[in-house]
Amino acid sequence: MRNRFVVYLVCLAVLNLGSPLVAQAELIGTLQAVEASTRAQDLATVNSALARDQVRAQFVALGVDPAQVETRVAALTDSELRTLAGQVSAAPAGADALAVIGIVFLVLLILEAVGVIDIFKKFP
Amino acid sequence: MRSSRAARAAACVAALVLAGCATRGPQLPPVVATGLPAGVELESTPFFPQQDDQCGPAALATVLVASGAQVAPDELVSEVYLPGRKGSLQAELKAAARSRGRLPYVLPPSLDDLLAQLAAGHPVLVLQKTGAGPWPGWHYAVVIGYDASRDRLVLRSGTERRLEMSASLFLATWDRADRWAMTALEPGELPARADFGRTMEAAAGLEAVGRLDDAERAYRTAAKHWPDEPLPRVALANIALARGDPTAADRELRTALGLAPDDVAARNNRAELLRSMGCPESARREIAIAARLAAGGPLAAAVASTQRRIDASSGPDGPGCPAE
């Protein structure tokens, strides 16, 4: 009995994923039109629903309060989700970088300045 | 406290090292020579000292409050802080700005555009990369001013209310973050030197998360500023359809097609609109044009999907359909 309830719930959740798109599937959305004008690839090849699932899972894994995950995922656009999918752990995440990491940066800068390393490609 | 002192010491020594090895000349004077004031400081920009690793919420609150929104960094933590990364993602800063009815405009990656926003009164949230190699360190700060004669920028950064940074040190950290910068605007406002694609992308983000009123304001502003572009009209039509107003949508789409008869999105959406209004014959005519225009392009699949649906509804136009 309880199992069946869970199955229904999961079905509902899965069906619900696509619902905002299904309503007007034959209209080209504004964001889609903007992307089409800036990118050459076929937008249909990138699956937004899949990207949404990936980002959701990554948020959970990175400690986002489960009560907040849906709200946060819903606040992102399809294009942001596609960019983030699979990248949440690697994408830039601004933090308190000027303290400890500033010192690392400094050491690297000195090494760079005296010619031991060459990692700052864009650096003069 | 301790970390802040360490940061200051690190910044000072780094500045000295850079001053010693920087071979490129002054950065700001050539930029301001293009028609910007020699110096600007947006002193009234609020300051929220960051707590722990939370420069994202602090920097975001700074630009949001400066744009007139009511928000405190604490309220933003649950929206933008990622505990597992001890930081915040760029996309989530944009999302939180949208949730507060602000247009998150991501600047073109140039110093000119950054200074132009300051001259126009908009503080700019920037991403800086301070670490390297196995210790990538990222930091958000807000640029609030510059002084070309001294080649320095002024920032609200971390626990520093007023951090002066040489332009070359700033650029060393900003370049390595791909010069990412955003500003928060009211939806009816345009950034200085507004880029059409970036403005539309920001506005479409508001629409995508259901903030139709804010998106509409941004689209109307864009339609007025770029009167020859069809896209803001297509966007306004989408808003009208989302509100169940096909008459207004049709008016906007016809305006768009008057401006650009070859616009794929306008053709496709007009075809779908005609189908839904009981005009299958006109819809078939429109979608055939759209399919020809879209062939081989990024919207080909979307148009093909519309065409399948339209082809499924046969028969002649009902009364009140456009005669052609």
Structure notes:
The complex is a heterodimer of chains A (124) and B (324). Chain A has 124 residues and is an all-alpha fold. Chain A has two domains: 2-93, no CATH class; 94-124, no CATH class. Chain A contains seven helices and one strand, in the order ααααααβα. Chain A has helices at 2-17, 19-22, 30-38, 48-61, 66-74, 78-84, 100-113, and one strand at residues 93-94. In chain A, α4 runs antiparallel to α5 and α4 (48-61) packs across α6. The longest helix of chain A has 16 residues, at 2-17. Chain A is flat and about 60 Å long. Chain B has 324 residues and is an alpha+beta fold. Chain B has 14 helices and nine strands. In chain B, β6 (138-147) and β7 (152-157) form a beta hairpin. Chain B is elongated and about 70 Å long. At the A-B interface, α3, α5, α6, β1 and α7 of A face α1, α3, β3, α5 and β5 of B.
Quick structural summary:
The complex is a heterodimer of chains A (124) and B (324). Chain A has 124 residues and is mostly helical. Chain A has helices at residues 2-17, 19-22, 30-38, 48-61, 66-74, 78-84, 100-113, and one strand spanning 93-94.
What is the fold's blueprint, element by element?
The complex is a heterodimer of chains A (124) and B (324).
Chain A: H1 2-17, H2 19-22, H3 30-38, H4 48-61, H5 66-74, H6 78-84, E1 93-94, H7 100-113
Helix pairs in contact in A: 4-5, 4-6
Chain B: H1 2-21, H2 28-32, E1 39-41, H3 55-66, H4 73-80, E2 81-82, E3 87-89, H5 90-99, E4 103-106, H6 111-119, E5 124-129, E6 138-147, E7 152-157, E8 160-166, H7 167-175, E9 181-185, H8 196-208, H9 212-225, H10 231-242, H11 246-259, H12 264-276, H13 280-294, H14 300-312
Antiparallel strand pairs in B: 1-6, 2-3, 4-9, 5-6, 5-9, 6-7, 7-8
Could you tell me the radius of gyration of chain A in angstroms?
Answer: 21 Å
Secondary structure: number of strands of chain A: 1
Oligomer: heterodimer
CATH superfamily of the largest domain in chain B: Cysteine proteinases
Q: Overall 3D geometry of chain A?
A: flat
Question: What is the general shape of chain B?
Answer: elongated
How would a crystallographer describe the biggest sheet of chain B? 7 strands, antiparallel
Please give the count of helices of chain B: 14
Greatest interface and its residue counts? Answer: A-B, 67 and 94 residues
Percent helix range of chain A: 55-70%
Query: What is the element string of chain B, with H for helices and E for strands?
Result: HHEHHEEHEHEEEEHEHHHHHHH
Q: Per CATH, what is the topology of the largest domain in chain B?
A: Cathepsin B, Chain A
User: What does the largest sheet of chain A look like?
Assistant: none
CATH class of the largest domain in chain B: Alpha Beta
Going by CATH, the architecture of the largest domain in chain B would be Alpha-Beta Complex
DSSP strand count of chain B = 9
* N-end to C-end Cα span of chain B: 75 Å
Estimate percent helicity of chain B: 40-55%
